Inverse folding.
């Protein structure tokens, strides 16, 4: 597993990192990619949870450890500015 | 007592590696290595890793932070059960840590089973990373005739209401809360990030002052700063008033999370935004109401 992706931008389609994710995990990644396109930075966990109307515990279940770091690893997006 | 008890005596009667402690004191650098960010612990908070630089000194190890009852009481029965537990599944050592939690050192293999047994005792873990840390309180009216509010009761209400914040980190930085029963502030609420201090006003009666942004640590810029008053008075006559106090905490945590800069601790956030702006963002008006 790679470290945080740096500022290289969203993962190109077909990157092996994204295979094997379930629809719920993909929905979160899609939301984060959309947010990044719109705002130029990755959302923090609180924003993600509030805007997607998700339970924080669910996000931790989908992306164990540090969810935002894990999402950034998977998408190749940089960590949010306040992290 | 002939001699004052010795911490080294206690530590050496457990299986904690005393050599590691000695090296930390005498060595030129810390014997502890950095945490490995790639290690995913089975719990989001309440469980941390502490690695030794040399693995022969100490195998891979974890610590658990138990959230204790506010005020810090422990019955003999609970003390006995915890003693048995840390002996069977831990290093045989219980640390009443100055942050307010009870720390248990154990191995990755035992950690989850240990948490399961803690749960069976009515306890849980939390308070690590960028979350709301354990809500500490003074003894309040249970032991003190100065108490203006029931600090442990209010702290228990807040700890229960914000349990998720203590177990699922989603704050810009750690946030250490506290509740003091009166201005003597035995629990040192004024050192902490988010705190309540019992007060009494001639006409309005008893209540709490919300203070935020205490910062005394290594990163306080060489100048330790006490917390500052955010809301001077919120009436608290009894349990029925706890909800408004909790609402204030909730609004504050939301505003801080939304507007914080890069890993900005509450004290720095307050410096940057100022009290008026923060109160405006929280929707707290001059009449002392939440909009
Ligand atoms: S802070 Fe006040 S109420 Fe609490 S223990 Fe100290 S003197 Fe008593």
């Amino acid at each position: 597993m790679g470290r945080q992706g740096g500022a290289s931008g969203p993962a190109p389609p077909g990157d092996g990192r994204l295979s094997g994710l379930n629809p719920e995990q993909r929905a979160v990644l899609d939301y984060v990619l959309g947010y990044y396109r719109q705002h130029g930075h990755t959302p923090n966990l609180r924003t993600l949870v509030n805007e997607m109307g998700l339970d924080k515990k669910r996000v931790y279940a989908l992306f164990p450890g540090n969810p935002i770091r894990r999402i950034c690893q998977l998408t190749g997006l940089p960590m949010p500015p306040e992290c | 007592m002939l001699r004052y008890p010795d911490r080294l005596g206690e530590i050496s009667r457990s299986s904690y590696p005393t050599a590691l402690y000695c090296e930390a004191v005498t060595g030129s650098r810390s014997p502890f290595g950095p945490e490995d960010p790639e290690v995913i612990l089975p719990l989001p908070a309440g469980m941390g890793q502490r690695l030794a630089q040399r693995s022969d000194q100490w195998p891979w190890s974890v610590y658990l932070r138990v959230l204790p009852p506010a005020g810090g009481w422990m019955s003999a029965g609970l003390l006995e059960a915890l003693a048995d537990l840390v002996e069977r599944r831990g290093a045989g050592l219980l640390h009443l840590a100055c942050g307010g939690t009870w720390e248990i050192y154990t191995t990755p293999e035992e950690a989850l089973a240990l948490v399961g047994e803690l749960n069976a005792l009515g306890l849980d873990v939390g308070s690590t990373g960028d979350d709301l840390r354990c809500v500490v309180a003074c003894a309040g009216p249970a032991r003190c005739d100065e108490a203006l509010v029931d600090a442990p009761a209010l702290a228990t209400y807040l700890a229960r209401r914000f349990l998720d914040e203590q177990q699922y980190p989603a704050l810009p930085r750690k946030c250490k809360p506290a509740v003091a029963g009166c201005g003597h502030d035995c629990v040192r609420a004024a050192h902490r990030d988010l705190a309540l201090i019992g007060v009494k006003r001639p006409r309005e009666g008893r209540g709490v002052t919300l203070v935020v942004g205490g910062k005394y640590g290594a990163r306080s810029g060489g100048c330790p700063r006490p917390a500052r008053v955010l809301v001077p008075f919120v009436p608290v006559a009894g349990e029925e008033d706890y909800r408004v106090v909790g609402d204030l905490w909730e609004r504050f945590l939301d505003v801080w999370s939304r507007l914080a800069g890069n890993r900005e601790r509450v004290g720095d956030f307050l410096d940057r935004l100022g009290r008026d702006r923060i109160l405006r963002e929280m929707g707290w008006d001059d009449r002392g109401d939440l909009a």
